[in-house]
């Protein structure tokens, strides 16, 4: 009895387990909790669920062992009642996911954690076979919403996105400019998941957006620090392509790097525009989202759009001075001429592992850029996820839900009841199949119409207007010199020290503090 009660409690927890990890969920958007914040609830619920399910299984094992029929019970698969063997398989898959998700294991080998977590399919399907359709329906709501989100992300990620420009900076950072349709909405606080198919078909990596939506309608930029094998291979591919010889004939295609993108995700509300005073603290590549925030504010100030911030302090700590050229990826003066008359901007840079500036300090900002600009007539990012289009998202959820009810009703009327199907595990399998079929068929129909609507809207726009050209994404030495000339007065660089926030922040100041580390 105790094992049964614990299993029921675990089932209640599982009803909410998948909701926080639905990245593009309408529910998360409605309650204004971004995906990266909601994952903590998934972690908490996952630990609680697995504790309850593990105790549930252990108590039954102890009881069967006391009765002397442990092996017979573990291998039993009843037609009427609970099927034990699928439950054992489901629990084993859950334990593998749980153990590999613990912080020490996840830090030791993240890929092991990621790939093992794909066993959630076995975990859920085994549960449906274990308890049957009626009991499984208690947790089916949250699982169904996750399936809706996963199918939508799958449709978006299958599209190949052109990389308009790829640049490798000497400081070990790569800047990618991705093509996107004009009706794809995001803000300076967004992030995307990126897959480079030339490197891996399985690995997806999240990166903060480093560009403002006001920088251009048809592109989105991200900065990537070379810190691991995947990023090192990406930088190597860019360097190899840029050093390759030109094609022998004009008809021969030029090599390029292709990508798939999920997102953008993140806060839909522009919190960086709601405070008069901003203090932005970054470490290393963590400056990337703050470049997007600063660019967004400068555009709004220049164009007279609503923008509350007037006092901005950027505190940036780096290990070596060779990381300073990251600031040259954005020309403040070209975005907002004479911005220093409209905005109080201070940039305090701390180089922590160098006690003195280099002998030729000017060389710090001389950026030699390797650029790859395929500019092929490919696809931009899909608008299926991350646009905040509540109408299409609502139609997708409603049609899939109605389709599930219709499918289940037809199944009972024309198959289960006439054929007197009473096998629990089989009815659980049919229930799970109806969930999957309704998402693919009814939800897929709406996704297809959504895609046609996207193409129709995109066709109306002038793609050549404001479209990024190769010359617009390259930062040459003149642009860097302009940065030095106009922004020296707002930038201070200190070597061999760390930020002292007690002396920076007034005690009675009302401000927004944001921190991002590498």
Automatic annotation (TrEMBL):
Q: Which CDD domains match?
A: NOX_Duox_like_FAD_NADP (cd06186)
EC id: 1.16.1.7
Which range is the signal sequence, renumbered to this chain?
Answer: 1-24
Q: GO cellular component terms?
A: plasma membrane
Q: Where are the transmembrane segments?
A: 48-68, 80-99, 119-148, 278-298, 391-416, 428-453
**Cofactor annotation:** FAD
Per the record, membrane topology reads: Multi-pass membrane protein
Coiled-coil parts of chain: none
Query: Which PROSITE patterns does this one have?
Result: FAD_FR
Q: How would you classify this enzyme at the top EC level?
A: oxidoreductase
> Any keyword DNA damage?
no
| InterPro entries assigned | Cyt_b245_heavy_chain, FAD-bd_8, FAD-bd_FR_type, Fe3_Rdtase_TM_dom, Fe_red_NAD-bd_6, FNR_nucleotide-bd, RBOH/FRE, Riboflavin_synthase-like_b-brl
Tell me its family: Belongs to the ferric reductase (FRE) family.
Name of the protein in its database record? ferric-chelate reductase (NADH)
- Origin species: Populus deltoides (Eastern poplar)
């Amino acid at each position: 009895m105790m094992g049964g009660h614990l299993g029921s409690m675990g089932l209640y927890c599982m009803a909410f387990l998948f909701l926080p990890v639905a990245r593009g969920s309408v529910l998360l958007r409605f309650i204004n909790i971004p995906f990266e914040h909601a994952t903590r609830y998934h972690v908490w619920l996952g630990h609680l669920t697995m504790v309850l399910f593990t105790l549930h299984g252990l108590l039954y094992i102890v009881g069967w062992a006391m009765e002397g029929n442990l092996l017979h019970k573990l291998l039993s698969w009843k037609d009427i009642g609970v099927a034990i063997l699928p439950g054992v398989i489901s629990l084993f898959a859950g334990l593998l996911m749980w153990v590999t998700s613990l912080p020490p294991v996840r830090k030791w080998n993240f890929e092991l954690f990621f790939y093992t977590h794909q066993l959630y399919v076995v975990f859920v399907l085994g549960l449906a076979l274990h308890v049957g359709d009626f009991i499984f329906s208690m947790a089916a709501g949250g699982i169904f919403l996750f399936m809706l989100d996963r199918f939508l992300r799958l449709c978006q990620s299958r599209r190949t996105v052109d990389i308009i420009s790829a640049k490798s900076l000497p400081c070990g950072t790569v800047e990618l400019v991705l093509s996107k349709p004009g009706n794809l909405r995001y803000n300076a606080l967004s992030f995307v998941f990126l897959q480079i198919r030339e490197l891996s078909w399985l690995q997806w990596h999240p990166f903060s957006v480093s560009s403002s939506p006001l920088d251009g309608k048809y592109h989105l930029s991200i900065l990537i620090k070379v810190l691991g094998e995947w990023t090192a291979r990406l930088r190597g591919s860019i360097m190899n392509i840029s050093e390759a010889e030109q094609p022998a004939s004009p008809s021969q295609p030029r090599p390029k790097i292709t990508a798939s993108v999920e997102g953008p995700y993140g806060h839909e509300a522009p919190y960086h525009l709601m405070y008069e005073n901003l203090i932005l603290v970054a470490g290393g590549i963590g400056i990337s989202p703050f470049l997007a925030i600063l660019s967004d504010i400068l555009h709004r100030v220049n164009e007279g759009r609503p923008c509350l911030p007037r006092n901005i302090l950027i505190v940036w700590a780096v290990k070596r001075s060779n990381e300073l050229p990251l600031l040259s990826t954005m020309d403040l003066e070209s975005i907002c001429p004479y911005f220093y008359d409209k905005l109080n901007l201070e940039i305090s840079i701390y180089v922590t592992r160098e006690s003195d500036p280099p002998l030729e300090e000017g060389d710090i900002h001389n950026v030699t850029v390797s650029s790859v600009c395929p500019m092929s007539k490919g696809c931009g990012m899909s608008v299926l996820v991350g646009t905040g289009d509540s109408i299409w998202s609502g139609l997708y959820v409603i049609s899939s839900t109605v389709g599930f009810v219709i499918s289940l009703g037809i199944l009972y009327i024309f198959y289960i009841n006439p054929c007197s199907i009473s096998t629990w595990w089989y009815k659980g399998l049919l229930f799970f199949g109806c969930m999957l079929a309704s998402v693919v068929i009814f939800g897929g129909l709406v996704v297809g119409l959504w895609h046609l609507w996207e193409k129709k809207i995109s066709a109306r726009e002038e793609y050549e207007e404001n479209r990024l050209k190769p010359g617009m994404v390259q930062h040459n030495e003149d642009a860097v010199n302009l940065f030095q000339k106009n922004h020296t007065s707002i930038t201070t660089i200190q070597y061999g020290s760390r930020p002292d926030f007690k002396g920076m922040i007034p005690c009675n100041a009302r401000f927004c503090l944001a921190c991002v580390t590498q």
